[in-house]
Amino acid sequence: MGLKIAARLLTHRYLNLLLLATIVGVAALARLPGLNRTSLWYDEAVSWSQSRGSLTELLSSVASDNYPPLHNIVLWLTMPVLGDSETALRLPSALFGLLAVVLMYLLGRFVCDRWTGLLAAALLAVSPFHIWYSTEARMYALLAATGLAFLLATLTVLRKPGVAALLALAVSGTAFLYTHIYALPGFASVGLVCTAFAFRDLIRREPIKTSGAILACAAMTASTLAFLPWLLILTSRARSVAQEGFWIAYPDLPFLKTMVFNISGSLSFFSLLAGLALTGLVAGLVVTRKPARTGSHRQDLVCTAYTAGPPVLAYLYSVLVQPILFDRYLIAAWPGLLLLAAMAARRLLPHIAPLALLAAALILTFPELRFTLREKVRPEWRLIVQDYLERRHPEDRLVLYRGFAAPALAYYLREPEAFAPASDRNTLAHQGTAGARWLLIVHSNEHETAEARAAFGIGPPAPVARRFGWGASGLSLFEKSVSD
After folding, report:
1. What does the DSSP 8-state code read for residue 293?
2. Which end of the chain, N or C, is less surrounded by CB atoms within 10 Å?
């Protein structure tokens, strides 16, 4: 009896489920235990701050920012149930990260076979880049998950259109667009490819009800119309951002190399993935397919558009108009490259290449994976606030320079009147003469730090506490002495 049960478990179906469960388990172990290992950083605290009030207040505050509101709505729904601890705020992202791993399996199985799905899921499960942003209370893990759902729904409609598939495409496309502005290039790239397929079907006079491409375009049109109100808001914000300037650097070669490393965890691994994906694409377009797989050309082109569209379009915009290309914004495109590489490995050398690719991923990205899980930190707001609370007297007042970081400080102090933000030297000088004793300087260069100290009236002594943060100042806490 025991032998029969064991034999049954080792059949393809049960072995497949066992391997998928193992991959999801590994993904969970890499994401869930460390949700409170690092402090919330500024952007995460902004998400918390924007999502605390009413839904109307949430929409109003997000409308004045540079992204759509879906992730904030998720936090608005979960905070009353889970609370607003670091773990509670990051848990939705971790769960969306696990969902993305499952969607990678479904995509790989759909476009090729179950082994491709398992390989693609495994590659994403151990990706340091995806792990890191699955432990952040921002929209990036949601962006990857909704993007993969959109891609899967598009491929499903192209192959076998039906009411359920069309509804799934319209809903997933809308969710994708409402997650982040970088969904637009991915959505548009897939839409352009589907439009080309639709024109081809029209020329061939294929009935609309059987043309997956035409129906896919119709479903994406519904998503676009649903997103149109927020698109108008983002367009208005884009004008002010263009006038004020943006913090992202010009994408020169050193910038691009750093970005590629941050995403892939290894330049060698990225080269391997890109080479495999390109080889698989060329082979898929050149080699004659079996009649049953004539749709492979279409699905390969759609996956390529989804993957290459965002970085290519963002790079061109950055070079021609204004820099907008940044690593974390490409988190939806990154799984697409992993999927293309997994497809190519399975098609070129089906028994050897998939295992070799997974081994290469583990070996080449292991240093970055270990660093991500154990050492990588965000600005240490939790620790700098602890430093302040241990030293202050009840009547002391704290001034924060710069004011844009107020949400992070407010999250950890939890006292609305516990500090005063200051964005310029005049405000600092006024606070200093009004009796404020403590100054926290964040994310400033050496010149700005010196000017801030002078305006506040602090002499040359070193800060009483200093924690990791960006810029020469990091997070530096100063105390005004009696002599000052």
Report:
1. G
2. N
Rounded to the nearest 5°, which phi and psi values hold at 226?
Answer: -65, -30
Distances (CA, A) of 12 to 7, 122, 445, 483: 10, 18, 59, 78
User: If pLDDT is split at 50, 70 and 90, which confidence band does 236 have?
Assistant: confident
The predicted-structure confidence for 186-206, as pLDDT tens digits, reads as follows 999 999 999 999 999 899 888
CA-CA-CA-CA torsion sign (385, 390, 395, 399)? negative
Token pair recorded at residue 301: 């082109």
Residue 442 β-bridge partners: 475
Residues of the chain above pLDDT 90, percent = 75
Among positive and negative, which fits the CA dihedral 47, 51, 53, 58?
positive
Contacts of 299 (CB under 8 A, 6+ apart): 111, 155, 158, 159
Q: For residue 452, give the nearest of 435, 440, 437 by alpha carbon.
A: 440
The four Cα atoms 355, 360, 366, 368 give a dihedral, to 10 degrees, of -130
Distance CA 189, CA 247 (A): 26
Query: Which amino acid is residue 231, in one-letter code?
Result: L
Under a CB-based contact definition with an 8 Å cutoff, are residues 62 and 69 in contact?
yes
Give the type of residue at 109: R
Question: Amino acid identity of 252?
Answer: D
What is the reported pLDDT for 292?
43
What 3-state DSSP class applies to 484?
A: coil
Mean pLDDT of 241-270: 88
CB count, 10 Å around CB of 232? 10
* Contact (CB, 8 A) for 431 and 456: yes
Tokens 């500024």 identify what position?
Answer: 42
Closest CA to 398 of 425, 364, 373, 434: 434
Identify residue 418 by its one-letter amino acid code.
A
So where are the chain's domains?
2-374, 381-479
Q: What Å distances lie between residue 361 and 19, 131, 216, CA to CA? A: 18, 14, 34
Tokens of 307: 């993957």
Find the farthest-apart pair of alpha carbons in the chain and give their distance in angstroms, rounded: 87
* Encoded tokens for 314: 């963002």
Q: How many C-beta atoms surround the C-beta of residue 364 within 10 A?
A: 19
Q: Of 149, 157, 156, whose CA–CA distance to 111 is shortest?
A: 156
Angle separating helix axes 425-433 and 446-456, nearest 10 degrees = 30
Put the strands of the sheet holding 475-479 in their side by side order: 419-421, 398-401, 438-442, 475-479, 465-467
- Average pLDDT of the segment spanning 134-154: 98
Neighbours of 179 (CB within 10 A): 26
Tokens 């808001």 locate to: 233
What whole-number distance in Å separates Cα of residue 421 and Cα of residue 423? 7
Which residues lie below 8 Å from residue 48, measured CB to CB, with a gap of 6+?
40, 75, 84, 89, 137, 407, 411
Per DSSP, the three-state class of 35 is coil
